[in-house]
Amino acid sequence: MQRTLINIDRRQVAGFCLALTAFELLTYMASDVIMPAMLDVTTELRADVRHVPNAFNLYLLGGVCLQWLLGPLSDQYGRRPLLLVGSALFGVSCMAAFFTDSIEAFNLLRLLQGMGLGFVVAVSYPALQEVFCEADAVRLMALLGNVALLSPLLGPLLGILLLEWLSWRQIFLALGCAAGLVWVGLFLWMPETVGVERRDGHRNARVPFSWRFTFQRYGALLGNPRFLCASLALGLMSLPLIAWIGLAPLLLVRVLELTPLEYGLWQIPVFSAVIAGNLMLDRLLQTHSLPQLVQLALWPFCLGLLLLAACAVLGAGLAPVVASLSVYAVGLGMSNAAVYRLALFSTEDSKGLVSALTGMISIAVMGLGGSLIAAIGGGTRLEYFSLWAALGGLMCLPLMYRLLQTTTPDVASPQ
């Protein structure tokens, strides 16, 4: 994976990928490692249990708050300084959770911590696409997806283990310290990709920031049907998985009365399936274009969600629900990085702004959709969760059909 588009050596490539991977992992870990302790958080802060999914959804919505501004700012000032600011903000807000004494302050900090996710989407993802050629960029996006999925896969188990020795406050403090180390890694190894001459002769030109011009560009993007379909589809495709992450503590621990360890173990099949899908994507990239990959991925994606809906109708237990989610998760893993690439290159506009709006739309859909599923009873019964999660995920199909119809076969080819 040495086909970089800018002139950096192998050591810097490795350090950049490692620091970027660690930052993304931490932004997800800050949510998932604390999930087993969320009932303890609400008890200690004297809050209602409804704040368990609310805190998770606020974290997702925090990722949307600044993306609209971060993308255009990074187009002018560069990806590197913006990502350094983002990692610092994330680390400080994690450390501040150690001192919180109310659920309102806790939720506010969850929102601020979620902004770190916004920096990942709006700043680091475009940088990755600009450093590497297309096939390698898609592979690295899938790899980052795998690493990020280690958080919901191992995060609950790690949280259970850490809670044997640490309080939830001390876990946040540890996350903040780890974010400090990541900041050092980004400072040492992250290259600048804006305003730099590429090896193919092109230059990622700096785009001067202007409020009026920025909103005009956003308006043009919102009028681009292919971009809008891809961005909305990204959010809806991930909605069942996001709803599962947010509601699993209530469904498994509170409703089904499983132990925290059993709750953690039941996460393994679902997130292992997403990783398997990402690995299949890496192999299929050698012989298939991205639209072809998405078409293949829709088979396990739709099958899993239809089985999940059947579980709701038949009143199936936990094992069939998790098995259905796992089939769906294979399709999600195969398609997510490919659909993101199709969204990013659906327009010739600068990738910072495009990535920002893509992230805003997709994360808003996931956050609001997860909140809606929780509000209509998704956390009270397994059948309700299965039905609403399946319907939410299947809503992406008309969008995917439109996207594939308007994407030419040579767009985003493997090489």
TrEMBL record:
GO MF annotations, alphabetized: sodium:proton antiporter activity
Annotated transmembrane regions: 12-31, 51-70, 82-99, 111-128, 140-162, 168-189, 227-251, 263-281, 293-319, 325-344, 356-378, 384-404
Domain Major facilitator superfamily (MFS) profile, first and last residues per copy: 16-407
Keyword Transmembrane: yes
InterPro entries: MFS, MFS_dom, MFS_trans_sf, Sugar_transporter_CS
GO cellular-component term (any): plasma membrane
Coiled coil as UniProt keyword: no
One GO biological process term: xenobiotic detoxification by transmembrane export across the plasma membrane
PROSITE patterns named among the record's database cross-references: MFS (PS50850), SUGAR_TRANSPORT_1 (PS00216)
Key words of the record: Membrane, Transmembrane, Transmembrane helix, Transport
First-listed, main subcellular location of the protein, grouped into a coarse class: membrane
Domain of life: Bacteria
Membrane topology: Multi-pass membrane protein
Listed SUPFAM superfamilies: MFS general substrate transporter (SSF103473)
UniProt subcellular location: Membrane
PANTHER family documented for this protein: MAJOR FACILITATOR SUPERFAMILY (PTHR23502), POLYAMINE TRANSPORTER 2-RELATED (PTHR23502:SF132)
Name recorded for this polypeptide: MFS transporter
The species this protein was found in: Pseudomonas khorasanensis
